[in-house]
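Help wanted!
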Amino acid sequence: MSDDTNVVLDFERKIVEIEDRIKTVTALAKDSDVNIDKELNRLQLKLERQIKLSYANLTPWQRVQIARHPKRPQCLDYVKALIDDFVPLCGDRVFADDPTMVGGIGRYHGISVVVIGQEKGVDLETRVKYNFGMAKPEGYRKAQRLMDLADKFNMPIICFVDTDGAYPGIESEARGQAEAIASSIQKCLTVSVPLISVIIGMGGSGGAIAIATANRILMMENAIYSVISPEGCASILWRSADKAKDAAEALKLTAQDLKHLEVIDEIINEPIGGAHRDTVAAIEKVDEAVYRHLQELLPLSREELKKQRNQKILEMGRRLETESVEG
Amino acid sequence: MNWLSDFVRPKVKKTAQKEIADDLWLKCPNCGKLLFTKELKKTWYVCPECDYHLRLYMDKRLKMLFDNGVYSEVALKLIPDDPLKFKDSKKYTDRLRTYRKTTNRNDAIVVARGNVGGVKCVIAALDFAFMGGSMGMAVGEGVVKASEIAVKNKIPLITVASSGGARMQEGILSLMQMARTASAVNNVKENGLPFISIMADPTTGGVSASFAMLGDIHIAEKGCLIGFAGPRVIEQTIREKLPEGFQRAEYLREHGMVDVVVHRSEMKNTLATILQILTDKRATTFETKGEKNKKSA
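Answered by r_m:
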């Protein structure tokens, strides 16, 4: 098995080159008395400049690559760092448990919450276990069951969205993937507790919106959220998966695009160089944003929370329309 | 908004000479038999040879469903085109223009009001002939509008799906229609009104994974394709051939996702009966039966 946790993206190559230089110089200095401080300093500055440069003007396709980076923090990383006393819960009470759909109860800054999200896995073994982050109908039914639990005990729901999409297979169809997703969206709209969804990596179509129909939809700077994968879109509209880059441009799937289209509420900035270069800092930023939004939602009544969510969804895109009509 | 002003008279369409020539004969996609269009019209486009249900044109479907074929189309708010300025091998605006010309419709949805089995109702129907019935902002707006009409007038909502799913050319905004339509039909249901979802060929992707699967009652047309992922995507994922009958209406019924599978000739009557039972809960027939029971007891 190849160790893909050391994946280097094309546009990161220059950064890695400098990092390697630093390593070499440090290693050389160990065996000699030469003072390398000056050289190291120079390299460090160069590194910082290069990171800023490489990440200053990312193309949509580059962001897709970052969003899929294997070292990017995943749902369970956030749960581990942010949720105290986390009790994972299992099963949809109908058919099975879907490990892909992580769910459970715990405390977030002392507040009892329900956490739901997709986990993709970090190596071959866990990726198989989590089905590469693609949930099956039982996963979406588990999500609904947990939302009901949250509703009953009046606990806010926090969703960490990270999936290439819902699993397209025979068993998914047999057990009603479409119905499971539709009902999950409906459940998101009917619960009367604060619901915050964070797109932390891949927001893959129906599989994502099933747990992202929220009071607040937050999105990380380098996450993507799209109706179809760039590859899928390219193979249908361009009749060639090689055109994924063009499709990524056309689909307007970056956080910046979505903020402009008023589909998301806020972009959560990532540490320079992306979440995969500094997991701790990335999680801190998510924490800050989620906590702030939760504080804003907590004073709302149950009725208001549900109403706000439905109105927000129904109004989506409408303002855009009038704008362009006038413009 | 006044419901009177929302009405538009059904347009009288001039049928071009060429169309008639083309449409005189149709080949059944299933058995390959050449069929006389005139005959097909009598059977609502069901092949008399093999019983295959050909895709029904929008106006034919509405005519079939509403009593005496009488209905009035609701004017829909015009949605500005192409929010993403989408371009693949062709500009999205060019594609739209072509479909508008060939279908004579603004987008893939028609909202119409009328009676079905004597019950006043509103129908939102998707038109596969318009970009595969794909759901973008205009289709979403149509379902929202139809739901609003249902709630405002306290009448049942019926949707007819015939769609490949979300419209890729509207990107994330098309995905958002899944949530918008779910919210809209949910409002109908929470107001205690019936929402009947009819599934025609095909009902897949973002349409099946949103409003189409949220009905109080699901009626599917015989043999139609219903599913989340398209058969080709699944075949590519699992790299094997799909079993016979997979994702067909009957398969969905077997797996608990659809209540009734009907032959097209039975669609209208089934819908009418369901609407009558749900809206008129004290029909006279019930009382007479009740009397009978009392006597026998």
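OP: Thanks! One thing I noticed: The mean pLDDT of chain A is 92.
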